[in-house]
Amino acid sequence: MQGQKLVTDCDYYDTEGMTEQDIAAAKVVKYAVATESNTVVYIKVAREVDGNPAALTAGQLEGLTSYMNEIKDAGVSVQLRNEPADQMRISLLIYYDPTLLIIDANGNGSQNGKDPVRETTKQVIENLPFNGMFRKSDLMAALQALPCVEVADIKSVKVKPRNGAEWQTVEGYDRPYSGYYSIDALTVDYQPYNAIE
Length: 197
Description:
The protein is α+β, with helices and mostly antiparallel strands. The chain has helices spanning 20-26, 58-71, 116-126, 136-144, and strands spanning 31-37, 40-49, 52-54, 77-81, 86-96, 102-103, 109-110, 134-135, 149-160, 168-169, 173-174, 181-192.
């Protein structure tokens, strides 16, 4: 809790006199998950900006590091992972029902002023739980559930941690290094579906 001091020799704060809103505002880390590997505890963390995960600021990370050093058990090695979102590039091939979806001159789909394929894809990625597994099959199922989509094909999904050197092709599933994703590029190739040849 930024701006608050731990109770002496304890791992909790004195919140007397604070409202629930004050407490919520003081809590910097909104997303966190811990895993252990080779006797090291790795903790992925993020704050919340406009309803989405985001990396902590340098000052917030410094405060969190101090807090973790204070509360952790002696001899336990803890490493904080505070990273910007993993980047994601998605390429789709969509065979659409021309009676339900209009494709404009720029190749964007439109149904009631929105592109349901792009909206659905963004929702699938944004609604993943923190450190949740991205599964291509989940995206496929969400796209196939759209009434305007007759056939959906995921041509490719590539991911890269923000500071990573190379893009990796997702084969089946992927867990984000940072704990969350940001769509860097979304390409949709729309083709009309012809039931009769």
